[in-house]
Amino acid sequence: MKILTSAQMGEVDRLTTERYRIPSLLLMENAGRSVADEMEKACDRLADKRIVVLCGRGNNGGDGFVAARYLSLRGAHPTILLFSDPGKLRGNAKTNWEIVQAMGLQIRILPDVAKARSFLRKTAFPDVVVDALFGTGLSKPVGPDFKPVVEWINRASETAFVTAVDIPSGLFADSGSVPGPAVKAHLTVTFSALKFAQVVPPASDYAGRVVLVPIGSPASLFENPRYRLNLIDEKQVSGAIPGRIRDGHKGTYGHVHIVAGSRGKSGAALMTGLAALRSGAGLATLWIPENLQRDVVGKFPELMSEPLLETEEGTSDCADADKVLAAGGKIDSLVVGPGLTTHPSTRKLVWKLVHGSPVPVVLDADGINAFAPPAEPLENRRKQPIVLTPHPGEMAGLTGKKVSVIQDDRLGTARDFAVQNQCHVILKGFQTIVATAAGDAYINRTGNPGMATGGTGDVLAGMVGRFLAGWNRERNNSGCPELADFLCAAVYLHGMAGDLAAEVEGEESLIATDLLRYLPRAFKKVRIG
Q1: Measured between alpha carbons, how far is residue 470 from residues 233, 241, 360, 483 in Å?
Q2: Whether 103 and 171 share a structural domain
Q3: CA proximity to 233, closest of 455, 3, 18
Q4: Which CATH number fits the domain that encloses residue 182?
Q5: Quick check: 22 pLDDT over 80?
Q6: For residue 160, what is the DSSP state?
Q7: Range of the domain at 134
Q8: What is the number of structural domains in the chain?
């Protein structure tokens, strides 16, 4: 699902009219009608409620005029408050102003600050408020002229239902920050594509429930390769879940090899392997230090294991790198890192595996730390994809930036690193980011604070390994989704499993293996819709 900047949205609107001859007046008509439609769904018995529609002088106000008109046509009795001199209205907004005047809708004109303040001070809060003051083009914080209006709406929201037209007034469409006074909406009806402020907090916290509605722009306009930001949604995810065929067998659904574990950290390897199986892999093999075999073999009979020579500290030794690579011709993806440690010999093992793997590679945990400077180049000499799954601390080690700097610009950090290193990055945390080597980025909205517990990253690594294996098996078939879709599916389902688990277990009591138990429900939910 595309997330567009204000400029990109303006380009779509312009091309809709210039290229496809769809009048901008019709787009405004569709937008305003959609607002009325969604309000009817959200609020019972609108005809019996006191409704106030606050309009500015721009196109957002024009959308408000249309919404008021449709509410009136459906039996409601909205009052329009125009915070402008009507003589300053232009274009489609002026046309729709003339329509609501001709229809005799109740209107109050408040062209200056003093008049507006006086009127609002005397006005009882309504049952429903429609915010159509400013649209996505706002470029400076709300000033003293409109601050009292925004504050009045927010006081009213304690008892009234507030609907924002396109974006809550006071927010910048292209920013997740809240630059000044802003409307706190219960519902935001936005048009054609999502905006950054509706997705990323703290701005998104002001939008309430966001409903995206099409208003007539052809779908081809959103396929512009320059529009690189997206929100992961169920449609994208369901398309990347490999279907099961009647005559399929365990080899059909991918074999994931996992190089993981060290003395005291066998659990990381087990959770990674089980996650690969729970998310659909036909086979999963753990490559673990030889003295861990007794801790692992037979504990979960579905998992296979192979021993690796180990160091005195109980970590995997680089001497067995060729042994792992020799098995690569029979597998579909390689996961490296959970519980490995950063022992010098283990780091060398990671470098050799990443450089020489004949299949796509997932780097997690100490697999990522192995490439913190100084390190070997992050590259696969066989041109296989590399996917990194860092948390902010691991990203800090890779980039040399402070964690706070990374958290302030998660999207930019992930995207820049992916492009510069020609890899794919899954930056974990609140609203996990998936960034591709081509510069595309995806924001995930599943997951909850209960997942902030040891082992959930190992589960994600196994899931990414399984989905990477699925892509590798299908990559040469026509109609195969993009690699990014498979990565997004793993991230989305991982978060959804956490959400389903939290509903039952509670966030405080959630542990990583709960995700494994709830993964089947997550898959089922996405498949059914």
Answers
A1: 19, 8, 11, 10
A2: yes
A3: 3
A4: 3.40.50.10260
A5: yes
A6: S
A7: 3-227
A8: 2
Strand ranges (E), 166-260: 187-191, 194-195, 209-213, 229-231, 255-259
pLDDT confidence bin for 529, thresholds 50/70/90: low
468 in the same domain as 376: yes
Q: The tokens of 79 are what?
A: 């009052």
pLDDT (tens digit, 9 = 90+) per residue, 74-107? 999 999 999 999 999 999 999 999 999 999 999 9
Asked if 25 and 170 sit in the same domain, the reply is: yes
Residues 482 and 400 in one domain: yes
Model's pTM, two decimal places?
0.93
pLDDT of residue 527: 86
Nearest alpha carbon to residue 461 among 346, 368, 353:
368
Two tokens, residue 414 = 């992930």
Do 255 and 163 lie in one domain? The reply is no
Which of 159, 193, 227 lies at the terminal end of a domain, its last residue? 227
Per-residue tokens: 111:
């062209």
pLDDT of residue 114: 85
**Residue 154 pLDDT class (50, 70, 90 cuts):** very high
Burial of 508 (C-beta count, 10 Å sphere; 0-12/13-18/19+): exposed
